[in-house]
Amino acid sequence: MLSAEQKKLKFNRSISRWFYNHQRIYPWRKTKDPYKILVSEFLLQKTNADLALDVYKVLIREYPNPFLLAKAKVNNLRNQIAPIGLSYRADRLIKTAKQLVYEYNGQVPNNRKDLLKLYGVGLYISNAVLCFAYKDRVAIIDTNTIRIFGRVFGISSNNKRPRTDVKLEKKMENWLPKRNFDMFNYALLDFGATVCTAVNPKCKKCPLNTICDYYLAGTKEEFIKSSSHKHK
C-alpha cells in the first residue's frame, strides 16, 4: 500500500514518461504568446484539438494580434470558424479582442482577476493562459483532467459544473509537480484525450493502473465474479 506521497510520485513520473513518448504537437504549445494561447483556448472549447488546428492557423495568420482581431468582420470570422462549428465563438473572440484593445492596451492580462473579466473567459481558459503563457503553477480543469483525478484518486466535485469548482482546482493543484508543471498539464490533457477516455478507457495498457482506484475496483469486482463462478 503506497503512501499518499509515494502515490503522487508514481503518478507524476508515470504521466511524465508517457508524455515524453506520446505528446501531441500543436503550434500553440510552442509559443508563450498569451494572445495566441488565448485564441487557441477559445477554439478548443468543446472541439477536438486536431480539428481546431487548421482554423487556429488561419486566425493567427489573418489576425496576429488583438488590434486586427478587434476589427474583424463578424461574418468573415464566423465563416473562418465554420469548419469546427459553434459559430458564436466568432462574436466572443471579437468582443474579447476589443476588451484587450480598449481596456488593456492590447495586452492579455497576467492575473486571474482581470482575465475573468474578459468576455467568454472562465476558470479553465484563465488558468490555461496563466499556466502556459505566464508560467503560473495552476491546475487545468477540464473534462479530461477531472476524469483522471476522479478515477485515480477519487477526487470529485459536488458542483453541477465541476469546471468552475475552485476547491477542486486546489485539490488538483496539490498533485502538480513543482517544476515543468506547464508540460505536466499538457500531459494530463493528452492522457485524458487518448488513454483515460470517457468511453472505453485503455485501462490495461495504462501506466497508472497499479495505483488507479477506478481500475483496481474494477479488477476486484471481476475477480470476485470469476471466483464465485468457479466455486458453483
Kindly summarize this structure in a few lines.
With 232 residues, this protein is an all-alpha fold.
Total helices: the number is 12
> What share of residues is helical?
55-70%
CATH superfamily of the largest domain: Helix-hairpin-Helix base-excision DNA repair enzymes (C-terminal)
Q: Unreliable stretches, pLDDT < 50, 5 or more residues?
A: 222-232
Helix-strand makeup class: mainly alpha
- Number of E-type strands: 0
Distance between the termini: 32 Å
The SSE string, one letter per element, is: HHHHHHHHHHHH
CATH class of the largest domain: Mainly Alpha
Biggest pleated sheet: none
Question: What is the fold-level CATH name, i.e. the topology of the largest domain?
Answer: Endonuclease Iii, domain 2
Work out the radius of gyration.
20 Å
Q: Sum up the overall morphology in one term.
A: elongated
